[in-house]
Amino acid sequence: MKDPRAPGLGYRILRLDSKPPELHLQQRTEDAYTVRRYLQGVPEGQDEIIREQALPLETNMDMMNGIDFRKGCYVGQELTIRTKHRGVIRKRILPCMIYDNDEPAPQVLAYNPGDDSSATALTADAIPGETSIGRVGKKGRSAGKWLKGVGNIGLGLCRLEIMTDVVLPGEQAAATYKPGDEFVLAWGDGHDARSVKVRAFVPDWLRAGLSEPHG
């Protein structure tokens, strides 16, 4: 069965017994699967879908075939359906790429494990979860928060009108994104203070879903 969440996530195999499937396929590690998920912007688990905080639409469940709006009964159903039809989802989980403060912003989302030969000493797994994302040289509301990562990529809950060129329905005047804007993750105090720049990307599958009329 093809994974319905996003392109490139492969297939799921359902069996009635515990025997491994006899398939002539290359076996990959869980880390490789995690990298693929991050590149597509697909969250899993409570480190990425934060318990008692995450909203289904902000985690892209509506775009990943995770919600049936015609049936079902679950906690938060009324709020979820009302937001879909009447509200605006300003934040979404997106794939993000970190880069050194003195480097130019990356133009393409690409994975770098950040080993000893890499120019980037800081890797994404060292960034504390829920670290606030700020705009370089500007004050004001947070642009989002970091969730989790590996190497130079990860996932962030990002404000679309601030960090991306996505224009929300009826929100053209509220959009503050500018192509030259840069964003930063900063944490720690004193000698332990660290910072790294971060850029969010909108995967093609998510951009296509956001451009479709929903009502």
Count of strand segments:
6
Which H/E pattern describes the elements?
HHEEEEHEEH
Low-confidence stretches: 116-120
Label the structural class: alpha+beta
Major sheet: size, sense and barrel closure?
A: 6 strands, antiparallel, barrel
Q: What's the overall average pLDDT, rounded?
A: 87
Question: What is the CA-based Rg, rounded?
Answer: 19 Å
| Amino- and carboxy-terminal Cα gap | 29 Å
Q: How helical, in percent, are the residues? A: 10-25%
Q: How many alpha or pi helices?
A: 4
Q: Biggest sheet, strands in spatial order?
A: 1-4-3-2-5-6
Form type: globular
Portion in strands:
15-25%
Family: Belongs to the GcvT family. CAF17/IBA57 subfamily.
Keywords: Mitochondrion, Transferase, Transit peptide
Main location: mitochondrion
Domain CAF17 C-terminal: 90-207
